[in-house]
Amino acid sequence: MARALAGAGCKTFFVATLDEARIARGAVPAAAIYVLDGFFQNCGDAFAKIDARPVIGDLNELAEWDVFCRRSGWAGGAAIHIDTGMNRLGLTLVEAQGIVPRINAGDHGITLVMSHLACAENLNHPLNAKQLASFREIASLFSGVPASLSNSSGVFLGAQFQFDLVRPGAALYGVNPTPEADNPMQPGVELKARIAQIRNVEKGESVGYGATWTARRPTKLALVSAGYADGYFRAGGSNDGTRGAEVVVAGKRCPVVGRVSMDLMAVDVTDLEKNAARRGHLVTLIGDGITIDELGHHFGTIGYEVLTSLGSRYGRIYKGGTAAAAEPDPAAPA
User: Fold this and answer.
1) DSSP character for 235?
2) Quick one: 142 exposed, middle or buried, by C-beta within 10 A (0-12, 13-18, 19+)?
3) Residues 6 or more apart from 258 whose CB is under 8 A from it?
4) How does pLDDT run across 79-95, given as a tens digit for each residue?
5) Residue 149 Cα distances to 16, 84, 110, 113, 141, angstroms
6) What is the mean pLDDT of the chain?
7) Which pTM was predicted?
8) 228, 208 contact by CB (below 8 A)
9) Mean pLDDT throughout 153-168?
10) From its phi and psi, is residue 321 left (phi > 0), alpha (psi between -120 and 50) or beta?
């Protein structure tokens, strides 16, 4: 992803941890890379080694960063994170005002001032305007330092929220950043799994753990090699009173029946044409009209959690960018 984004002109990247920063640095040698989880004592050399920048959200972190820079001579820069209403990470507004003299003194080592929106996906939430006003005021005191406020949803709140730099995340993968309106993003992820077996069950027979789903007619099932160990949540299953998620088999939507297991799910393919679903065929779990957000709804969560839960057992193919992964082993289950 980093290579593809860099190829499209992106020069600045944000990751959560130093380990992620190391991987990103290998992909984008010339980019600015910020580490959102902050700076911890005795990790300065690790930042310097890969030319990564900490996002500092606490005065103790700032002091430790300053000590490292003075001792080592490192001048790679850091971001200051200011809390404007999320009440998560970040300096308070008072603390941020307290370091303004440092900015005015020059040679301060601060390359970005940023905050994070708490309710950007809700267009008219009053906290958006409150955070914007607070950040605009404090950012204006950091003279000459680029400013960043908007996440994926914040980008779509308007130009006044965008400042010098925006930080889209899940929207890059097709999650809807404007849930109150149509999704402006194109899908970026397709997920498929293989049919392990086709079997028939008679009317009145149950399927899956707990016998929660009962066939109301003679039913043909496709057993698909993916389950909650792969990030396809158990909540996506169904029972006799509640319909669950769907997958696409041979171009048609088919319902998941019974409980999703650790490694398998059962799909009702009775209404498909004969032999349309066969052992070894791939079915689509995300894509062909099934969106990340739809799956999140069935799972009782959001698209972000769906994406971050996808397991390591899937073979990954990256299309576009500067390189593509090899095709997965056709004998692999998913």
Assistant:
1) G
2) buried
3) 206, 207, 208, 209, 212, 213, 237, 238, 239, 266
4) 999 999 999 999 999 99
5) 17, 10, 16, 9, 15
6) 94
7) 0.90
8) no
9) 97
10) left
